[in-house]
Design goal:
Structural class: alpha/beta
Strand content: 25-35%
CATH architecture: 2-Layer Sandwich
Number of strands: 9
Number of helices: 4
Largest sheet: 5 strands, mixed
Radius of gyration: 19 Å
Helix content: 25-40%
CATH topology: Double Stranded RNA Binding Domain
Length: 186
């Protein structure tokens, strides 16, 4: 009797897990921030590069191995364009983190058609901390990881349509625009 009950529970959990895997979106991400960023304190400053730090934070989320760095030879369900913004307020000792996110899917033949951007969202997180140049990498990574955890919940709730396979050609366009110093409204 108990053995049958345990088998039913295992079957139920396995079914939930497989359903989650089947409905999980296969995504690419593009970090729209190529220049060095600075966090400053009245007597010190800290410089970091958002793109490698975001890559590190994404690697901290092992449950989402279906998220790849944007490349032109990949075909996925959607591309998540992430613009991370951090600021440190010395008076209140708060590190603020924001993600401006656009989700792109090839619904039109033209890459830049507005219908291809299926969702825009802003996500925020903050942390009280003392400014310390030595440990700031850890705190930036922690804030980025928390922001990404919130983003993943929103993307899971979005239920991205898998009928529009999206190739990474937009990644090349975004990289070119980022390098060309054109200030696009994001």
């Amino acid at each position: 009797m108990t053995s049958a009950f345990v088998k039913k529970i295992i079957f139920f959990i396995s079914t939930l897990f497989l359903t989650n895997l089947l409905h999980a979106a296969n995504l690419q991400y593009f970090v729209d921030q190529s220049i060095n960023q600075y966090l400053s304190n009245p007597f010190d400053d800290y410089m970091y590069q958002p793109s490698p730090m975001m890559d590190k934070a994404i690697a901290n989320l092992p449950a989402y191995s279906n998220v790849k760095k944007c490349s032109s030879d990949s075909v996925t369900d959607a591309i998540v364009i992430i613009k991370p913004i951090l600021s440190y307020q010395p008076q209140s000792t708060i590190l603020y983190g924001d993600l401006k996110v656009k989700i792109y899917q090839s619904k039109s033949n033209r890459e830049t058609h507005p219908d291809n951007f299926i969702r825009e969202m802003n996500i925020s997180h903050w942390k009280v901390l003392r400014f310390d140049k030595v440990t700031m990498d850890h705190y930036v990574n922690e804030v980025y990881t928390k922001l990404l955890e919130q983003l993943i919940l929103k993307i899971d709730a979005l239920q991205i349509n898998k009928n529009y396979p999206t190739n990474g050609s937009l990644c090349d366009l975004l990289s070119t625009l980022r390098k060309s110093k054109i200030n696009l409204r994001h």
